[in-house]
Amino acid sequence: MSKTRIVILGAGYGGMITSKRLGKLLKAGEADVTLINKHDYHYLTTELHKTAAGTEPDSKIALPITQFIDQEKVTFKKGTVSSIDYSGNKVLLEGGEKVNYDYLVVSLGFHVSTFGIPGIKEHAFEVRSFRSSKTIYHHIQRQFALYKEDEDPSRLTFVVAGAGFTGVEVVGELVVKLPELAEEYNIPFDKVRIVNVEAAPTILPGSADAAVDYASRILDKRGVEVKTSTKVLECKEDNIITDNGDLPSRTLIWTCGVQGHHLFEGTGIETVQGRAVVDEYLRIPTLKNVFCIGDNSYFKTGEKTPLPPTAQVALQQAPVCGDNIVGTIRGTELRKFEYHHKGSVASLSEHYGVGEVGGALLKGKIAAAMKKVIGYRYLFFLGGPSLMLKHFFGGGTSLAKVAAKQQG
Ligand SMILES: Cc1cc2nc3c(=O)[nH]c(=O)nc-3n(C[C@H](O)[C@H](O)[C@H](O)COP(=O)(O)OP(=O)(O)OC[C@H]3O[C@@H](n4cnc5c(N)ncnc54)[C@H](O)[C@@H]3O)c2cc1C
């Protein structure tokens, strides 16, 4: 009898931890596991705001995948998934290669929602992947260089749309980096504007009033122009049109929302905002051999509201997904997924942060430190104490230079 084939799509938080779990649980020769990802590096999506602003070296954000998987049990394949044939149990990769599976894990992460607003797709920048974030940093640097030639003020107006967690984290890094760039290019910093536009009446919509007040004060103190109750209506190459006036700018960083992956479109799989509805075992109910986790999945069972697309959810789902694949192969009882919310923290630069953990409001340096602890904890899970310590002492990994050059 041929060996069971397990294929995992996407080496983000969900895919990496599922691979590790399967590597740990499967006996030698029990199944073939293949992990497929666009790039041969795993990037820390929750840190991409630092790549976008250039405040963290690439070596700390993009890590070589093969270093963190058990290569005796898991094979890594670099490839971009173009479609999935669910009835034929096949994954199609760009270039035409087909990969057959008996069990599939879909963990391909998010796509950015543009809500059909004109010009966003063409002119705005996305904090979506390592590469898209790196593009933002190169663009920002270029605006400083070009300002020296034409003194066009739109070059030095940097606008972040969305003041949710991702938006304020991007702004928090820009307030650190832009003064450094101004100095490097010998441009007075008072020529630089950082604007944060939010459609809701406050920043961090949905957060406690005290968190909103604190974050608003910090951003104000750092010179950020916060424009709440303001909707972006159109983005042009050198102008952003809002319902509260125009913002002449060549940099709109769009952090206004995410949706699931387009790979479910036209497949008949039930989706909500592009996320596949999954059952309590994290399977697609009509396809019991297909599991879906992280930002791709829409999990509501037993919850008042669907779980948000966060790393915290992906990281809790991944081990359950691994256990349930092994349980299905061995015919043992499956685990129901239960989510335990541990809190959420946004950094507002290196030294400030805000959020709630265990129901308590955290702010300032404690919150910033907590955000770092959460990051180190993940690195510990991924690569053990050596990876965590390497990052703590400023090391990182050597693949990042390769990653920075790779396109796609
Ligand atoms: C700036 C920022 C800050 C955040 N901060 C937090 C936070 O503090 N806490 C929190 O809980 N969440 C946070 N999030 C959200 C969190 O990062 C996501 O929810 C999480 O990354 C989802 O994990 P995932 O495994 O589903 O997908 P991802 O981690 O996005 O991984 C998806 C992987 O699939 C690959 N891929 C995509 N398409 C293809 C394809 N067609 N073929 C092959 N490979 C493909 C990608 O390259 C990537 O490696 C943040 C997000 C951002 C952008």
TrEMBL record:
Signal peptide: none annotated. Pfam families: Pyr_redox_2 (PF07992). The keyword Cell division does not apply. SUPFAM superfamilies: FAD/NAD(P)-binding domain. InterPro entries: FAD/NAD-bd_sf, FAD/NAD-binding_dom, NADH-Q_oxidoreductase. The keyword Flavoprotein applies. Gene3D superfamilies: 3.50.50.100. Keywords: FAD, Flavoprotein, Oxidoreductase. Residues 5-318 form the FAD/NAD(P)-binding domain. Transmembrane segments: none annotated. Its cofactor is FAD. Belongs to the NADH dehydrogenase family. This is NADH dehydrogenase. It comes from Evansella vedderi.
